[in-house]
Fold:
Amino acid sequence: QKQLLESGGGSVQTGGSLRLSCTGSEYLYTNNHMGWFRRAPGREREGVAAIAIDGRVMYADSVQDRFTVSRDNAKRTLYLEMNDLKPEDTAIYYCAADAWYFGLKSDYVYWGQGNQVTVSS
Structure:
């Protein structure tokens, strides 16, 4: 019911690509803004990308030209396409959902369990 399930993480070399997916119930995706966050070792959680109910998107400056966020509510799936990955992208990535908040702050109500992405130099 109130669950967000993430997949697609793994290990990749610098310059490689990965696609993260996040699926959940209709309750979590219908009329909900969605976001991607990450937590690197020794650092606080930071917002990476977000997509609103109306399709608006926003990105952190560090990933603006490399990552693409999208959603397919018919499949109840949120995506994060990550290209030209760098070692500094290594982190646990989380998806999040909220009916009210849209942005890159950690103000979302529902959170996934996290998915590890490791980029080797």
About this structure: Helices lie at 26-29. Residues 5 and 23 are 5 Å apart (CA to CA).
